[in-house]
Amino acid sequence: MSSGAQKGMHDRLERLAEDLTRTFKELDCMVERSNGEVTLVVPVEHITDVATRLRDDEPFFFQELIDVCGADYSAYAQSEWQTDSAPNTGFGRGVQPIGRLESMQSNRFAVVYHLLSISKNIRLRLRVFVDTEQPIIATVVSVWQSADWFEREAFDLYGILFDGHPDLRRILTDYGFIGHPFRKDFPLTGQVEMRYDPHQARVVYEPVSIDPRVLVPRVTRDDNRYLSEDNATQDAGDA
Amino acid sequence: MPEIRNYTINFGPQHPAAHGVLRLVLEMDGEVIERADPHIGLLHRATEKLAESKPYNQSIPYMDRLDYVSMMCSEHGYVRAIEKLLGVEAPIRAQYIRTLFDEITRILNHLMWLGAHALDIGAMTVFLYAFREREDLMDCYEAVSGARLHAAYYRPGGVYRDLPDQMPRYQASQWVTGRDVGIRNQARQGSLLDFIEDFCNRFPALVDEYETLLTDNRIWKQRTVDIGVVSPERAMQLGFTGPMLRGSGIAWDLRKKQSYAAYDKVDFDIPVGKNGDCYDRYLVRIEEFRQSNRIIKQCIDWLRKNPGPVMLDDNKIAAPTRNEMKDDMESLIHHFKLFTEGYCPPVGEAYAAVEAPKGEFGCYIISDGANKPYRLKIRAPGFPHLAAMDEMVKGHMLADVVAIIGTMDVVFGEIDR
Question: Is B93 in a helix, a strand, or coil?
């Protein structure tokens, strides 16, 4: 992007962040800025209200809902390979999958919305944390029709329930699938595998026979090789 | 009086006009559709979950397999999201190469769409013509990346390698000998850029050829005019992007509005429809052929004049060259670390979108500071388009369903992910 256009975008985001802070402060919303993007953290009870106002009110006019997705934060910042001190047995290959999920956390799941204003040429992200035990959030299908399938997908993959959704069925997984596969406690290999059984002359489901294994362990390097200065200050706020 | 009930039929998942693995449950009143319920997910491979278990770079080939007719555009969306996280930008020559190949990809995709769409509605010839041109463009893919379809050519920080100086040529074989080989190799005497330029010079006449077959064709018009009309308001409400949105009369194109790569340095126009029906969307895409051709020509001119690096000179992100590795310990270590562990972007999140041929293709990455994405969400343009199926086919005849599936340009690799 040319520097002029970049400057224009930067100014618009700046103004958007101010407008958001002013308008939604009384609803306990929080504005975050990072990587040239604006995120509004919305309390779960206000989502429909905030969404409607973002679509209809001056100066926002977010006519389009680009994307809705779920996220599971229970394994956040956990690595599969601890190398702080050398063990007696030597280093393993990090074959232990992440075991300890922080389920006690009160907001394990989040729903993330990406909005686009065509008339103002600007984007906004909404993040809503939902309760761990009862992940329920109000639907925004009445605000943006495109939320319909996106919410079905988030329900299918994460088990997040959208209150008031007209047709909350599974969408991507198989008919009769059990579980929510994108949760961090769902193994990458799945739970069941299927094959044709010639004796019974039908397809049978069995528990998976392969062990989950880690080829490249998940590691976090804290030497911050890649941190630029403004990112460093931003992350302190994000974390 | 006999009781009249609605009839439910199953369309697909093995129907040739279902463009892959779409299963449609149609509720019919006679031959009129009352309700359409698309069942998707038959091609679900959990790409996003797989990406969570791999270092960033190892997921680039998955992007090719999402929308398998516009491979490099999906790669572009993914590498742009990573670059945003890392806070780096590719060198200018790489930006132009990406622009060039994005537009080649757009032509590839629209050719596939045009051929399949016309074939569904009963025009066989266009399909054969379209595949003739696709062959040349896939040779361009092969020349830069070694693969005709799944290129894995874009990398965070640039592209895998510079354009080749020599376009690969046909060899004589048992089936093609003597003069025939010469004819086939006519355009392949120079570099890849010469080959693409030759294509660009031929292509406008070829688009005219498709148009002769379709644009004023009575059957084509009867099958597409006033079919699947979407008003501009509904198009925004339904989350449409790309030609689906422009067909409804909204001049929205990320290449212009939120420019990336080298799109702000090239000249092109955005075609916009008027009525929002299948015919307008057809006209929009046909015009995009010509505009893409224009962009490619400008990229060729620039690339000829401006040699330079195509990859970031930062061995923390981009691998050192083979030669450097042979006599430099530091480079060998970098290479080893990059390929066994990858790089760790800072904590944060980023959403980057590109104007893929089908609409807005976006990647949303949450990073917790590890060498793998904590969460990757792929925003596929076809997903909301197909979700509007019910609204678009309601009240139309059964045969129009085929025209509407065609006009949406659905590919299940990206919808099911």
Answer: helix
